[in-house]
Design a protein that fits this description.
The complex is a heterodimer of chains A (532) and B (141). Chain A has 532 residues and is α/β, with parallel strands linked by helices. Chain A has helices at 12-23, 25-34, 65-76, 133-142, 171-191, 201-215, 227-233, 256-262, 288-298, 345-348, 357-363, 382-385, 426-432, 436-447, 454-457, 481-491, 512-531, and strands at residues 57-61, 80-84, 97-98, 102-104, 110-112, 120-121, 128-129, 146-149, 157-159, 169-170, 280-283, 302-303, 306-314, 317-324, 328-336, 338-341, 352-353, 371-378, 392-396, 402-405, 416-424, 458-465, 498-500. In chain A, helix 1 (12-23) packs antiparallel against helix 2 (25-34), helix 5 runs antiparallel to helix 6 and helix 11 (357-363) crosses helix 16. The chains are: A alpha/beta (532), B mainly alpha (141).
Chain lengths: 532, 141
């Protein structure tokens, strides 16, 4: 293993200060990026569109985040902007359901949310990674208050129906026991000279030291009942105060073989993924606070209830036909110099549109994923009161896959809302295929295997299956490497006077950041064309 | 059954489903009705009707009449495109526009069963049956 290149007498931060002081801050930034302290992003701060568009007009299709970013930024630099939106609300998949909200899915079934005041679920996006700089910067600029989103909760549960008699396990214990016993195994292998060919003598000493630290091993390099392991997996009796303060160390370490075969190690890694690493955020009061903030900026530009039926290009202009999404009737038209279309490809691929074969093939190439979320209101916050689970996520192999606890309102009296299911893959299709009330009923039935309190505390629920959402016909565009190689660049070109934006035109599918960055990239290229 | 590919574009899905995944298609008995949910990355249902009710009706609806919103899901009821069994089978295997491909999540026999079910229900009355071997020949080489 190599030694650090930086002299030991100089810390990395000091070195950066030095570089910064000599070469200016941009040199410092470049150096930091090279050294892994920050990561370059496509987002480089508030967009600067320079040059006069001379009254050019842009018709934007869709008032989700991509469409509203474009509307806001383009109007600011002098474009004539108009937005057509199919829905009766702005925001698109940036969406929150609260008590009193009604939602009618394809097939015609209407659900009315029965949650108490202040309680909600976000059927679409629900978390914002700290490196989603575009979304976060708009939150900052528009004053959208943020609070921590809890991805990893050591006191939440991991659950397999096929392990430990179906009894849910604490994330903390699985994580500690898995890591501790791997550390012990590796320490043994090192001490028994089984790694001699792979690791030098000097490195072995440091490896043993680090395994002790990493795995909470005792002085014999064992992961065993005692102070070290209890400091990770918790105590049998917690340290206290006064005469009965003496702690009792945890004894019931889960043996390695059943732990391995439980496959519960598969449920403890999500928070290590780049997109799930602490810190994550959520808007205070619901994800749609972001959409609302954009709407306040651009609402006067949006025409609601407009279902696009045809997109025509002619020299120097784009004409879009649309009908009233509720009443139908004769098509009307809107004409502009340019058209930025954020309609999901699931819908756009069904609209007759004058674009070249390459872009049409790209529009047709992207399937839309199934996903289902179920929000459940309970009469009390039993997960906090009974189990001390404050926010975060329980993972399970049951068809609900997830139970997520609210990351706000801790200790509130009254009712509380859980995300009682969040599925992709076969379970998402299977839940989509059920009527909404059945989705809720089954989410409660399955969740009761993890939290028996469900049986007495359940109050009401609402379920959103994204293939049934009338304005997206799916959750997100699913790209593969092969599809990207063939179609992605074709999708992102300006075709005549038409171009697209949205999460589907990004490398961050399904994330709001993808919609924002895609939109900023699209309007930058559009503006360059207009002022050229 | 081969393990589904795990391309970079599906990273989002994989992260969220958090890896409690087995590689064989198994069924989980539903608690009250005897219906099944799949436990792995492939669908567990075997017969045509169960497959239709677990997958297809999510979009094409229980009566197979489709639905209309900003876009539409085509009706499978009375659909002339079903006349040649290989066409719906190809769509199920490979997907079509926004419709996902199911070739990695259903085996040849399951695809034959669900296509045969749709072609003989909902006002469709095609007599010829699709077999698994024909489905196999429709898979990408």
């Amino acid at each position: 293993m190599s030694t650090p290149a930086t002299p030991a007498s100089m810390t990395r931060r000091e070195l950066l200060t030095l570089i910064g002081s000599v070469a200016g801050s941009s040199a410092s930034y470049t150096a930091m990026a090279g050294m892994g302290l920050t990561t370059p992003s496509n987002y480089t701060g508030p967009i600067k569109l320079e040059g006069d568009p001379k009254g050019a007009s842009v018709l934007i299709l869709g008032a989700g985040l991509a469409g509203m970013v474009a509307a806001y930024e383009l109007r600011k630099v002098g474009y004539k902007v108009r937005v057509l939106e199919y829905n009766t609300r702005a925001g698109g998949r940036n969406w929150t359901l609260r008590g009193g909200d009604s939602y009618t899915e394809l097939g015609g079934i209407t659900q009315t949310c029965g949650f108490d005041k202040g309680l909600y679920i976000n059927p679409g996006p629900w978390r914002i990674p700290h490196h989603h700089h575009g979304v976060l910067d708009y939150c900052r600029r528009f004053g959208v208050a943020l609070e921590p989103y809890v991805q990893v909760n050591y006191n939440a549960l991991v659950h397999s129906t096929k392990a430990f008699g179906g009894k849910p396990q604490r994330f903390r214990e699985i994580q500690s026991d898995y890591q501790g016993q791997i550390a012990e195994l590796l320490a043994k292998a090192t001490q028994q000279h089984k790694l001699d060919e792979l690791v030098t003598k000097e490195d072995q000493e440091m490896l043993l030291e680090s395994l002790k630290d990493w795995g909470a091993l005792d002085e014999h390099h064992a992961y065993a009942p005692g102070r070290e392991s209890s400091e990770r997996r918790g105590y049998e009796k917690l340290p206290g105060g006064g005469v009965s303060a003496v702690p009792v160390f945890s004894k019931n370490i889960i043996p390695f073989s059943p732990l391995l075969h439980s496959q519960l190690w598969g449920a403890i890694g999500a928070g290590q993924n780049f997109e799930m690493q602490t810190m994550l955020f959520q808007p205070v009061g619901g994800m749609d606070k972001i959409g609302d903030a954009f709407k306040r900026q651009v609402n006067d530009l949006i025409q609601y209830n407009a279902k696009v039926t045809r997109i025509q290009q002619a020299p120097g202009k784009v004409t879009v036909s649309y009908v009233d999404a509720v009443k139908g009737g004769a098509p009307r038209t809107a004409t502009a110099d340019w058209c930025l279309c954020t309609i999901p490809l699931s819908v756009l691929s069904q609209i007759e549109i004058d674009v070249g074969d390459d872009m049409q093939a790209a529009i047709n190439a992207v399937p839309y994923a199934a996903s289902t979320k179920v929000g459940l209101q309970f009469k009390r916050r039993f997960w906090e009161e009974d189990e001390h689970i404050y926010g975060g996520i329980t993972y399970t192999d049951l068809p609900i896959r997830v139970i997520a606890y609210p990351n706000n309102g801790y200790h509130s009296a009254g009712k509380g809302v859980l995300l009682g299911g969040y599925m992709f893959g076969p379970n998402a299709y299977e839940f989509t295929s059920l009527p909404p009330a059945e989705r809720v009923r089954r989410a409660v039935e399955y969740g009761a295997q993890i939290h028996p309190q469900y049986k007495t505390e359940f109050d009401n629920g609402i379920a959103v299956a994204w293939h049934r959402v009338p304005w997206t016909l799916g959750c997100l565009g699913v790209w593969t490497d092969e599809r990207r190689a063939e179609h992605y660049q074709n999708l992102c070109q300006i075709d005549g006077r038409f171009l697209v934006a949205g999460e589907h035109a990004s490398y961050i599918p399904g994330w709001q950041e993808g919609a924002v960055l895609s939109s900023l990239d699209a309007i930058t290229r559009l503006h360059q064309r207009v002022v050229a | 059954m081969k393990k589904p590919k795990n391309p970079a574009g599906l990273r989002f899905l994989c992260v969220l489903t958090a890896a409690l995944v087995t590689t064989t298609a198994q069924a989980q008995s539903d608690l009250s009705s005897g219906a099944v949910f799949s436990t792995g990355p492939s669908f567990a249902q075997r017969d045509g009707r169960a497959l239709y009710e677990a997958i297809c009706q999510g979009c094409h609806m229980p009566d197979a009449k489709g639905a209309v919103g900003a876009g539409r899901y085509p009706a499978l009821a009375g659909n002339a495109n079903l006349a040649a069994a290989r066409y719906p089978a190809t769509v199920v295997v490979n997907g079509l526009r926004a419709m996902p491909a199911f070739g990695d999540q259903l085996d040849d026999q399951q695809i034959a069963e669900v296509v045969n079910y749709v072609r003989s229900h909902f006002g469709n009355d095609f007599k010829d049956l699709l077999d698994a071997g024909t489905v196999k020949s429709l898979r990408p080489k």
